[in-house]
Amino acid sequence: MAGTRSSLKRKAPPAEAVVETAFHSDDEEFGDGLLEGVLEGDSDDSSDDDGDDADIDEVNADLENEEEDALESDDIPTDEEDADGKNAAEADDGPKYRIETDANGGTRYVYEDIVPDYDSDDTDAQEPVNTIGNIPLSFYDSYPHIGYSIDGKKVMRPARGEALDALLDSIEVPKGWTGLTDPATGKPLNLSQDELELLRRVQMNEVPEEGYDPYADTIEWFTSFEEPMPLSAAPEPKRRFLPSKHEAKKVMKLVKAIREGRILPYKPPEEREKDEEEEEQLFDLWADEQQNPPNIDRISAPKMAAPGYDQSYNPPPEYLPTEDEKKAWNETEPEERAKEYLPEKYDALRRVPGYDQFVKERFERCLDLYLAPRVRKNRLNIDPSSLLPKLPRPEELKPFPTVTSIEFRGHEGRVRSLAIDPTGMFLATGGDDGTVKLWELKSGKQMDSIKLSSDEPVDAVRWRPGKDASILSAAVSEDIYFLVPSYIDPELHQASRDVLDAGFGYATHSQQLMTASGARKDPPAKWTRPGTRLEDQGVLLKATVRSPIKVIHWHRRGDFFCTVSPSGQKSSVAIHTLSKHLTQIPFRKLPGLAQTAQFHPSRPLFFVATQRTIRCYDLQKQELVKALQPGARWISTFDIHPGGDNLVVGSYDRRLCWHDLELSNRPYKTMRFHPEAIRAVKFHRSFPLFADSSDDGSLQIFHGKVTNDLMADPTIVPLKTLKGHKVVNKLGVMDIDWHPTSPWVVSAGADGTCRLWT
Amino acid sequence: MGRLRKKGQAGAAKNYITRSQAVRKLQITLPDFRRLCIWKGIFPREPNNRKKANKSSTASTTFYYAKDIQYLLHEPLLQKFRDQKVLEKKISRALGRGDVGDASRLERNAARPEKTGRPPYTLDHLIRERYPTFVDALRDLDDALSMLFLFANLPSTSSVPAKMIAKCERLCLEFQHYLIVSKSLRKSFLSIKGIYYQATIQGEDILWLVPYKFNQRVVGDIDFRIMGTFVQFYMTLLKFVNFRLYNSVGLVYPPKFDQTRDESAAELAAFTLEGTHTVMTDTPKQLTSGESDQAPDPATQEAVNKLIKKMKETDVDGEDKAGTADDADKEDEPTDAIDKFEPSAPGGDILPQPTDTGSDTGTLFANCTFFLNRETPRQPLEFILRAFGCKRIGWDAVLGDGAYTTNEQDPSITHQIVDRPIIQAAMEEDGNAEDNQTSQKLASNQRIPGRIYVQPQWVWDSANDEELKRPDLYAPGAQLPPHLSPFVQNVHGGYDPTIPLEDQEPEGEALEDSEEEEDEEEEGEDDNSLAVKKVETPVNDMDVAETDEEEVDDDDDEEPGPFGGFSEGEDDMEDDDEEKEEDEEDAELAYQRDLIAELTGQPASQKASENPRSKAKAEARKKLSAQAKDEAEEMERARGMLSKKKRKLFDQMMYTNNKKSAEDEKLRAKRRKLEKQKARKPVA
């Protein structure tokens, strides 16, 4: 009974022990009671059969008694000790099993539980460890136990004192009491004397182990004592006994240096400072200067601006700021001021104060020098007026037509086309009523009226160029009529007739065109006499082509003319030779519908406008020279400048494009001044003017000057909008023409009138 | 297909490098990098396309040329910086260990690196690198001089050591000595900021600013470390420049420096110049002649002066010759002067040759002896007088050492510079009582006969105009004429205060002016003719209205609309109509005026006489305005024909031109007003 002995040894404070035992015994009794119930049940069953139980009962009674003894005497009644007590008792008292009768009446050995102890094999297990795991103990509040041991046995709740006992406890604390509860057992955690001593040592920074001497004497395993037997038997060398020559040399060097004054053993401190000052060496840095090649990357810093008059201490009075300026200067932020100083006047030099921003300005300059990115900027030092183009003065732009001077009335329905004859005396018009009317331009008198067709409109009237004859061509549907006015003087009349008749002879002599199969090919045009009625009226010749003609344009020599009939598929463009009564179809195929065509005014070039492009063909080489793209959707008309290098295109989508043929395929200028489609564009033959007419009922006159200088761009100046024609059925001005010599323009309106603008 | 080109591998992305990248590449600290940049003259660049240079990042950064930074990598100073860093680490470690002796030894060793085998770093090679030729260095001397002169006038602080200030001062004084000897100072200007000087050395104009001798106010956050870095460089630069300049005039550099005299504020006189030849030795004596010396006569002084100029000339008869005319001298010199090319036969073109005008600027004050009153600024006066040839300058003893004489009554004094008001008789005694600290024995208002008293501005104006100005304009207490900047080059059409107003104002302004005058005259003439004035004022108003109307018309014409044609004829007609109307109105007004005159009982003839004059003026004005209008219209039309780009450029130019001309106009208006006031004052 080691446990009891040890407990007996202790001078236990009785009160504690009593409390503990009280708890213990209660629990024990309770637990025993349970067990006893079982056992009693058993025994009740078995008592009838066997009397051996008495022994066991005795043993039990012994045990219990003994236990109670121990409890009474022992101050620390731990389970261990209880177990110890039991084991000891069992070990002492006899067999480790008891014999019971089982249900069948056979004997059954019931062994005692093996209590792990130092005696047993399992040395590590100390006490029943609660295995409930990491759950709060409060779950077991309503039970007498607090969990289960590894064997599945209930771990009983340790005994707790009542309030009075607790009070007593607080008055007298037992030795080793910590007030902590061991979470594993639920019992109060007490520390033994040894443990307390250990803690004390740790706390006092002592070596935890008792009796350890940190300053023990070292044991010299290897000693400095000379062994009696040397390792080498060589004798001591002589040099060990001689003074070093090398050292002597070194010393002598030092001595010599000191004697010579090369080394100063001591230097006064002020001398040293002087040394520092005289360290600068001076030499001509630029003795062998050579210019570096200029580097574009090196941008030298801009110099500070030289001071102006207003920086003077005594400036002229007009440089002094007024009160308002002073106020404005003071109110602006220092960064936003145009000048960082205010001019001021001092009547004497002695009154001039120090400039308080001096250091700041220098500092800012320093910052600029190393922080500001330097950029080379080209300052344009030119007169701004040299940038402006030389525009003609409005007076120089004159003359140009401004007002309607004559109105020509007579047509019924629209006037489709008109033309002024090369002499500039007469005007020919053709309209929807199928008549061609001739007017005297200056008076507005109708000279003649010839009805060419009763149902078809006259689509185009054009005079043959040249003053040797006076021939008017008019297009009515598929027919082209050539007429010679009756009012002209007989000589001219005869000459004109001759021109028209010359072709008849040629036509009869010429061979007929034959197809490959030998059949007679249908000629592109038939040249005939128009019939006596018309011949009496002066219409002398008629040419009929395959499809209705919309445009006639004469070559400058008056021998060729071209016609365009947009609906005429392959033969839409035809070139006719008046002197031979010959018609040729130059293009078998055209990209798009041909709209209009023109001869170049001086060179053998031929321009054909399709819907989108204008193509320029060389008639001699028979090849495409150029294709202009004005950018319009549907070209309505175009005209070539008499100089031959520029071209104006009008389109149904309200654009007027000026092309420079030398420059590009794209327009040089595009003008969009009309709200409606443009119907006609014409250059004046001698003045730098051109005009266009539109469905909005207006004409616009432009100044378009072309110089011979290749470098100079043409100047285009809008001049005048001429309004007067009425818009009928969304059609305004159908055609215009310029007077060959005067700055006059005539226009043909859809309202059945023609106007002369001067 | 060629190889795919990655973004950011070539072009701007490679050519530019941000500052932090540069610092990282060089492995130095930012302050070291800054120092290196300042000394090497490397500055940030503005890439054409920031986004490309910054690899599409939009953060605002400073860019450097990658080549510049690459070139910094080979800089020997970089290694020195690293060594310095190592040394600092060693010292701080020694101090941390408490090993003060070790630390001080390390520091001492660093202070005299030649003893420890480590050469000190100098900026000599940088100067040669940045300025491959001497002229390059001179070109960049503006900032250097301004900075050094400022530092020479600063108080010493922890960031600006006294040694540095002393060095700056010495270098500046040495440079001034060179200017005096070589007579290369050209212009000087007293501004509110300080004194500007301009010198021409080897054809380079150098302009620098020297602050007035006041304690400099240090405002705001000024980093003296940055300025110190600059000054360090500039000191080295000026040292070598001075050396070369001194050598070029045959002087020994550095000149002998007398510490004791410097301490007694001798400034320029603390230096003794030495020639490389023996002849030169006597000239400095003259330069720094103390008060004990007798006044040397001007002729010999001039001779000495000549000697300085022609260093090599050592022959004995030089002194005799010196008295003779300049022309004779010129003939003797075979090398310096330009030969005059005269056309030997007619028909050849005449080539312009520079005339030798530089020589007489150096002798402007040669025959004068100055005395500076104690209230005048001694240093700038001494410098400018000496630079323009004056040899004998005396001043009051309180102004420091080195004066030719401190005795105000010295009979050799020809000019005395005074900067104090004329003191009334009552104040005289007080003035005398104060004077006991100075050597001045004269009563403050007393004048010595035979001497010219002038204010300091006289010296500056005389030097700038290269002629001695009329001293009566600059007499003490007189209203000084304006001090004009000699650096302004007047452009044609700009305002010039030296030319009378009538010569430079445009016609329109002159007319307006005269009209105003007339108004004022009328005001002065008869106060009771208010009614007339009331009638007159509406005329002006109507004029204004008319112009407005016309403008509106113009606008209508030029509206972009569908198409603006030219209705010039109509316009003209309108104009004519208006003019007619105006005439009618004028007639009406005249009639009204007559009526009023009759009522008031004044003779109507006077008005009649006045009428034609005003009428003529009004007509002139009308004509002028019409002309201006026409011109503006014309310009507007032409401007419309320009392409957008050109129009922008044109507008910018016009903006700047207009701004300039507006400023000029303002100045003219102010001056006109002032002149009128002045004219009226005597009447009133």
Automatic annotation (TrEMBL), chain A:
Molecular-function annotations in GO: large ribosomal subunit rRNA binding; ribonucleoprotein complex binding
Subcellular compartments: Nucleus, Nucleolus; Nucleus, Nucleoplasm
One Gene Ontology biological process: maturation of LSU-rRNA from tricistronic rRNA transcript (SSU-rRNA, 5.8S rRNA, LSU-rRNA)
Cellular component GO terms held in the UniProt record: nucleoplasm; PeBoW complex; preribosome, large subunit precursor
Any Pfam family: BOP1NT
Entry keywords, A to Z: Nucleus, Repeat, Ribosome biogenesis, rRNA processing, WD repeat
Biased composition range(s): Acidic residues: 39-83
SMART domains: BOP1NT, WD40
Main location group: nucleus
Classification via SUPFAM superfamilies: WD40 repeat-like
Basic and acidic residues bias: start-end ranges: 84-101
Sequence similarity: Belongs to the WD repeat BOP1/ERB1 family.
Function: Component of the NOP7 complex, which is required for maturation of the 25S and 5.8S ribosomal RNAs and formation of the 60S ribosome.
Subunit structure: Component of the NOP7 complex, composed of ERB1, NOP7 and YTM1. Within the NOP7 complex ERB1 appears to interact directly with NOP7 and YTM1. The NOP7 complex also associates with the 66S pre-ribosome.
Name of the protein in question: Ribosome biogenesis protein ERB1
Species this protein is from: Pseudomassariella vexata
UniProtKB/TrEMBL annotation, chain B:
Biological processes, Gene Ontology terms: maturation of 5.8S rRNA from tricistronic rRNA transcript (SSU-rRNA, 5.8S rRNA, LSU-rRNA); maturation of LSU-rRNA from tricistronic rRNA transcript (SSU-rRNA, 5.8S rRNA, LSU-rRNA)
Alphabetical list of CDD domains matching this protein: BRCT_pescadillo_like (cd17709)
Location(s) in or outside the cell: Nucleus, Nucleolus; Nucleus, Nucleoplasm
Domain of life where this protein originates: Eukaryota
Extent of Acidic residues compositional bias: 326-336, 502-528, 543-560, 568-588
Keywords carried by this UniProt record: Nucleus, Ribosome biogenesis, rRNA processing
Primary subcellular site in the record, as a coarse category: nucleus
Span list, region Disordered: 310-359, 473-684
Biased composition (Basic and acidic residues): 310-324, 610-622
Function: Component of the NOP7 complex, which is required for maturation of the 25S and 5.8S ribosomal RNAs and formation of the 60S ribosome.
Subunit structure: Component of the NOP7 complex, composed of ERB1, NOP7 and YTM1. Within the NOP7 complex ERB1 appears to interact directly with NOP7 and YTM1. The NOP7 complex also associates with the 66S pre-ribosome.
Name this protein carries in UniProt: Pescadillo homolog
